[in-house]
């Protein structure tokens, strides 16, 4: 129950980021329309690499599948399984693969940031980049938190000789958080990369 309440507070945090995004966007679009010039969103969103971001998004979405496979394995009491057959993975295999995919996603975001930095776009460049870097940066920190949680659950599973109910609950709690982070990214991705 505590995790659900905490995720609700996280939802409010991201709702505030979305509200700020749309509010700033409307103000700058209105000002651009009054001046008869293209808006910040029209001119700056063209610098985003949609193909790269789509691949990075697919990696994060697929990590939700491996995460759920791990949570299901934990529920069944299967801590370890066959590496060769994903349907027979244990909790450990699923969470290790999920943590790796999450790390690849974060590395992709860092790569995208450095590409934008090299092109001269920073958080202080204008309102568009401020909102972009704040929203994606906070999301990236949440993904890092999820990766740390996976390694924590994995470490607990390696330190004990038997799989306990508490470990199953821990696996499910981490999976709830990971799915939440994925859904938030899908919304951010749609708004930041597709909404013109």
Uncertain parts: none
Strand content: under 5%
CATH topology: Four Helix Bundle (Hemerythrin (Met), subunit A)
H/E series, N to C? HHHHHH
Q: What's the overall average pLDDT, rounded?
A: 91
Task: Please bin the fraction of helical residues.
Answer: over 70%
Label the structural class: mainly alpha
Main sheet makeup = none
Calculate Rg over CA atoms: 19 Å
Any idea how many domains? 1
Individual helix count:
6
Number of strands: 0
CATH superfamily: Cytochrome c oxidase, subunit III, four-helix bundle
Question: What is the top-level CATH class?
Answer: Mainly Alpha
Euclidean distance between termini CA atoms: 38 Å
CATH architecture annotation name: Up-down Bundle
Estimate the global geometry from the Cα principal axes: elongated
Would you kindly provide a written description of the structure presented here, covering whatever features stand out?
This protein is mainly alpha-helical and 196 residues long. The chain has a single domain (2-194), classed as Cytochrome c oxidase, subunit III, four-helix bundle (Four Helix Bundle (Hemerythrin (Met), subunit A), Up-down Bundle), CATH 1.20.120. The protein has six helices and no strands. The protein is elongated and about 70 Å long. The relative contact order is 0.15. The mean pLDDT is 91. Keywords: Cell membrane, Membrane, Translocase, Transmembrane, Transmembrane helix. This is cytochrome-c oxidase.
């Amino acid at each position: 129950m505590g995790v659900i309440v905490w995720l609700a507070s996280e939802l409010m945090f991201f709702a505030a980021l979305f509200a700020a995004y749309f509010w700033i966007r409307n103000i700058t679009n209105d000002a651009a329309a009054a001046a008869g010039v293209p808006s910040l969103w029209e001119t700056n969103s063209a610098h985003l690499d949609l193909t790269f971001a789509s691949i990075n998004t697919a990696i994060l979405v697929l990590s939700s599948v491996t995460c759920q496979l791990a949570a299901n394995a934990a529920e069944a009491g299967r801590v370890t399984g066959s590496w060769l057959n994903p349907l027979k993975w244990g909790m450990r295999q699923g969470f290790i693969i999920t943590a790796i995919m999450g790390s690849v996603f974060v590395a992709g975001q860092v790569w995208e940031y450095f590409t934008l930095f090299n092109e001269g776009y920073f958080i202080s460049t204008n309102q568009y980049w401020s909102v972009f870097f704040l929203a994606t940066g906070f999301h990236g920190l949440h993904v890092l938190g999820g990766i740390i949680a996976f390694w924590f659950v994995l470490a607990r599973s390696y330190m004990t000789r038997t799989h306990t109910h508490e470990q199953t609950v821990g696996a499910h709690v981490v999976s709830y958080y990971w799915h939440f982070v994925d859904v938030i990214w899908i919304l951010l991705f749609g708004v930041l990369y597709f909404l013109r």
